[in-house]
Amino acid sequence: MPFRTPSSGGSCTVEHDVSRRSFICGSALAAAAAGVPGPAAAAPPAADAGRVLGPGAIPVTLTVNGTGHILAIPPQTTLADALRTMLGLTGTKVACDRGACSACTVWLDGKPIVSCMFLAIDAAGHRVTTIEGLARGDDLHPVQAAFIAHDALQCGFCTPGMVMSCAALLDSVPAPTDAEVRAAISGHLCRCGTYPHVIAATLDAARVRKS
């Protein structure tokens, strides 16, 4: 409700329209603000227990296709770039460079990964296998041979990644179904549209390995 206070002149009065509700709310906000700690009361930052790497190149040992390589790698280098530019393994293709097309697929400890989204320094202590490591001398991997027999490639840019994923599938599922092959290559982008040939080649490779 309104109340009156003396003005600076003494005789005049000034009305202040302050309700009980606004007074209580204002008091509560002031009390809450008083309880908020300022910068001086902020908790100290947690100590960084990890080792800081970079910004310069650091020595890293990569095991690729069964061979160890000691490389000086900047921490931001992807595994795909290290394989291509430092080791000359250009069978690993980089197309989207965003993990969207799977052309750069390699194996990490036998499991397919997109190497353009994986830091090279994180591959230390693991086994990396590229398309160059599938064949045994002049003997192609059954999936590689089946891709040729079924003409499962055109421009060939997506082919190495496709082969790596299909070969990994046969290692885990020796006799896959059509649906399982489709699922294994679902992340691969083939602008030439060779998917039916890829599926047929993979199923044929499974039969060859079984015989």
Structure overview:
With 211 residues, the chain is of the alpha+beta class. The protein has 2 domains: 31 residues, no CATH class; 153 residues, Beta-grasp domain (Ubiquitin-like (UB roll), Roll), CATH 3.10.20. 32% of the residues lie in helices and 16% in strands. The chain contains 6 helices and 7 strands, in the order ββαββαβββαααα. It has a 5-stranded mixed sheet, with helices on both faces. A hairpin with a 2-residue loop joins β3 and β4. The chain is elongated, with a radius of gyration of 32 Å. It starts with a strand and ends with a helix. The N terminus is likely disordered.
CATH architecture descriptor name of the largest domain:
Roll
Note the overall shape: elongated
* Secondary structural class: alpha+beta
Task: Please tell me how large the radius of gyration is.
Answer: 32 Å
Keywords:
single chain, 211 residues, alpha+beta, Ubiquitin-like (UB roll), five-stranded mixed beta sheet, two-stranded antiparallel sheet, disordered N terminus
What's the quick description here?
This protein is 32% helix and 16% strand.
